[in-house]
Amino acid sequence: MSIYVIGHKIPDSDSICGAIALAHLKNEIGEKAIPARLGELSPETQFIIDRFGFEAPLLKMNYAGEKVYIVDHTEKTQAPDDIDEATIVGIVDHHKLGDLTSSTPLECWIRPVGCSNTIIKMMYDFYKVDIPKDIAGIMMCAILSDTVLFKSPTTTTADRRAVEDLALIAGIPDYEALAMEMFKVKSAVEGTPVRELVLRDFKDFNMNGHKVGIGQLEVIDISVFDSIKSELMADITNLKAEGNRHTLILLLTDIMKEGSELILVSDDEKLIKSAFNLEDNSSNWLDGVLSRKKQIVPPLQGAFNS
């Protein structure tokens, strides 16, 4: 019976590239595995897999009765809807522990690094399996994406070393130039439907019984959103209602300025702003904030738990 390797709903580059890379490793050590996905590819992820000659993993939404290996999360809200009817055989993640549970023992590789693909690189080293050139390329790109070219506070020495090793294997002499190509793809928002933008990198979290949605759009210059901010606000208001969410946050992240503008709708806006020390009438600019998992989720979780 094959294992399906899957990331989270609305997959990002880490989820997709990680599923491909981990499935290859599993097959190399004699465990039959199939990379899969829980949604469509973002423009950045499509750019990456096209660049290195891959097809998108299998689109599969239902896993009842299947064995699954989870990549890039441990949250039930981000897993397949029928995850309770599947058998989780392993997890690779770099986020906080969520609420996924298993009925059988499982393999866990969880490290406080900038990207799941950094951990998958550790797994290749542990099992002494050579990384193919094309897989090294997508793993490297996923790390560069998740760490925002090492600007994110989630970046560790392990992430930097992994990128350097993977760049050599992939034959990429200037990985910074490739990262900037990726970011330009992310920044091309003109003509894209607003809902598609809001959901481009979006995750739901359970915070003390409250459903909280957090989206993030990383671009080279957030002025590209100036003409559509009212549309973005209208759409996140609708999305909040559609999903019965307590709060919905959209981060407009400026890679070059190294900060984010926070757009939000909430049943308790004062609570959310207090989590980030923002006054009711203040600007919602968060200087130095690039990471959802390290700079947004922890203070929000603390606010909901207080």
Total of helices: 10
The radius of gyration computed from the alpha-carbon positions, rounded to a whole number of angstroms, is: 19 Å
Structural class of the helix and strand makeup? alpha/beta
* Structural domain tally: 2
Tell me the total number of β-strands: 11
Give the CA-based shape: globular
Could you name the CATH homologous superfamily of the largest domain? inorganic pyrophosphatase (n-terminal core)
Helix fraction, binned, reads 25-40%
CATH class of the largest domain: Alpha Beta
CATH architecture of the largest domain: Alpha-Beta Complex
**Distance between the terminal alpha carbons, to the nearest Å?**
45 Å
**Beta content:** 15-25%
Which topology of the largest domain does CATH recognise? inorganic pyrophosphatase (n-terminal core)
- Main pleated-sheet profile: 6 strands, parallel
Task: Supply the key terms.
306 residues, alpha/beta, inorganic pyrophosphatase (n-terminal core), Diaminopimelate Epimerase, Chain A, domain 1, 2 domains, six-stranded parallel sheet, five-stranded mixed sheet, 10 helices, 11 strands, 20% strand
What does this structure look like?
Pfam families: DHH, DHHA2. Residues 179-304 form the DHHA2 domain. It catalyses: diphosphate + H2O = 2 phosphate + H(+). Keywords: Hydrolase, Manganese, Metal-binding. The mean pLDDT is 95. A 6-stranded parallel β-sheet has the order 3-2-1-4-5-6. A 5-stranded mixed β-sheet has the order 7-8-9-10-11. By secondary structure, it is α/β, with parallel strands linked by helices. It folds into 2 domains: 3-184, inorganic pyrophosphatase (n-terminal core); 194-305, DHHA2 domain (Diaminopimelate Epimerase, Chain A, domain 1), CATH 3.10.310.20. It is built from 10 helices and 11 strands.
